[in-house]
Amino acid sequence: MASGNYGRIYAVVRRIPRGRVATYGQVAALAGLPRHARQVGYALHSLPDDDDATPWQRVVNSKGEISARCHPYAVPQQRELLEGEGVKFDKAGRIPLARFQWNPKR
Question: What does pTM read for this prediction?
Fold first, then answer.
């Protein structure tokens, strides 16, 4: 189990419900790390491959896009996982955040 900032980030990501997404900045703010969106990306990149408890695929950039990763298969994999949860993409490949962004206060 991760501790410190990564542990706080993972705890927030685990709260994102199926069929919803959160932005890197949103996760950082909810983890008590405002303006540390990049650290969220580093934390998610550090997840072990066998971590099925942390839905990393539900974190996207502020435009509702899947951010490129070092593995070429990661972007299509993330899209497939999200579509499997009912998340829709527009013609430009963006997720309409007004519809699919998680609001933890609801």
Answer: 0.94
